[in-house]
Amino acid sequence: QVQLQESGPGLVKPSETLSLSCTVSGDPMRSFYWSWIRQPPGKGLEWIGYIYYSANPNYNPSLNSRVTISLDSSKKQFSLKLTSVTAADTAMYYCAREGFRGVRAFDIWGPGTMVTVSS
Amino acid sequence: DIQMTQSPSSLSVSVGDRVTITCRASQSISRYLSWYQQRPGKAPKLLIYDASSLQTGVPSRFSGSGSGTDFTFSISSLQPEDFATYYCQQSYSNPRTFGGGTKVEIK
């Protein structure tokens, strides 16, 4: 039973860097795409980017210059860094898996972690 | 980016009703279309992938159809636990994009 769990600070100051981790339990990390997705309060879902084992990450162009996604398979974690945050980055942040049996869909999601950008 | 347009944005229905939601892509996405259910305070849950394939464990009252740019999601007989927001999402190309959501409320 694969499970994902996000972790990281719930409050970040404007202009600082948001850093989150997602811990994967129950399955190896290779052969899957590992994504970050966010949802501002009361709004829809926005894909931030993904990383594939041993390949370069792919980012949403709307955030490209501020985003870094990395993977540490030894820790069974992947991470998100978002620089120069503003109030517009306040959102629930989810990590998700794509690619089970080659299916292009997010089949496993973490419960999410709320990040508020405020001084 | 491929834009995903969902309609309606909300609907009020009764238990036992049939629900139909449409999703239109700004360009052809073949059948790389998924549907998710999101209950308040919860993460989205995958219901349908590849336009019409039912995710393991999802009840058969949920179904999907379509290809190219036009897709449909249906619930044959709405149950109390189905009141939620539903999203479509394309995986044809990056960036992955979602529809704006359809909130299914109790009439």
Question: Main traits of this protein?
Answer:
heterodimer; A: 119 residues; mainly beta; 4-stranded antiparallel beta sheet; 50% strand; B: 107 residues; 7-stranded mixed beta sheet; 11 strands; globular
Summarize the structure in short.
The complex is a heterodimer of chains A (119) and B (107). Chain A has 119 residues and is an all-beta fold.
Describe this structure in words.
The complex is a heterodimer of chains A (119) and B (107). Chain A has no helices and 11 strands. In chain A, the strands form 2 sheets. In chain A, strands 2, 4, 5, 6, 9, 10 and 11 form a 7-stranded mixed sheet that branches. A 4-stranded antiparallel sheet of chain A has the order 1-3-8-7, with no helix packed on it. With 119 residues, chain A is mainly β. In chain A, strand 4 and strand 5 (46-52) form a beta hairpin. Helix content of chain A is 0%, strand content 50%. Chain A starts with a strand and ends with a strand. Chain B contains no helices and 11 strands. The N and C termini of chain B lie far apart (36 Å). Chain B is globular and about 35 Å long. Chain B has strands spanning 4-7, 10-13, 19-25, 33-38, 45-49, 53-54, 62-67, 70-75, 85-90, 97-98, 102-106. Chain B has 107 residues and is an all-beta fold. The A-B interface holds A 35, 44-47, 49-50, 58-62, 94, 98, 103-107, 109-112 and B 1, 32, 34, 36, 42-46, 49-50, 53, 55, 87, 89, 91, 94-101.
How large is the count of helical segments of chain A? 0
Sheet of most strands of chain A: 7 strands, mixed
Q: What is the terminal separation of chain B in angstroms?
A: 36 Å
Query: What is the CA-based Rg of chain B, rounded?
Result: 13 Å
Q: How large is the share of residues in beta strands of chain A?
A: over 45%
Multimeric organization: heterodimer
Mean pLDDT of chain B: 97
The run of helices and strands of chain B is: EEEEEEEEEEE
Enumerate how many helices of chain B there are, as a single number. Answer: 0
User: Unreliable runs of chain B, pLDDT <50, ≥5 residues?
Assistant: none
Q: How much β-strand is present in the residues of chain B?
A: over 45%
Report the strand count of chain B: 11
Termini of chain A, distance in Å?
Answer: 39 Å
**Helix content range of the residues of chain A, please?**
under 10%
